[in-house]
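Q: Here's a chain of 222 amino acids. Please give me its 3D structure as tokens.
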Amino acid sequence: MGPAFVVLSYLGGSVSFPALFARAKGIDLRRSGSRKLGGSNLIRQAGTPLGVAAGVLDGLKGIVAVLVARALGLPLEIQLAGGVAAVAGQLWPVFHGFDGGRANATGWGFAIAVDGIAALIMAVPVASALLLRAAVPSHPTRLLPTGALASFAVWPAVIWEQEGTTPKVVAGLAVLALILLRRLTAGLRDDLATGAPLARILTNRALFDRTELQTRGVVAVS
């Protein structure tokens, strides 16, 4: 039952609510704004209520994968594997040509379901980024992606500090690695074609989730 549940979790994670909501409005997120299948891009294209609703539903995918496995009495390792699979589905969705979003919401949902206390602490970098962005008159857009990435490093670190190296820590590191891999590789070929230095391309992608085309203003920043 464990492997089947992990596969089902991946398939559930592959349902992109931002893409579906945008399509209902006649919008193709891959051709609009930042070209990302995420709630932040949907907010820019279709308004805050729709974008927030889609983001919440994406977050629930991570929560549901863990809670359903727990309700079925599956081992902790399967619960964690199901949550990680849901994140992978959000990143590389089979229903959307394996070209998905960044899985921030799904990853946060997974973290909340697995360890709520650690999830509260992981919110600190995100909250700090939001406050700084609001406080600075220019409203810098690089802060939130950096805070989001930091949050996924904080979550397993908090658990490791309290419990040592456990399956939860390994799962948290897996989520961090998957999100970072997606940032580094999504649309990389287009960036390489610009001739920009590879180090700059990879640094902007990893830390700021910003492509070279976004840096040059060719593609919008969400």
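Q: Can you summarize the key feature?
A: The chain is about 70% helix and 0% strand.
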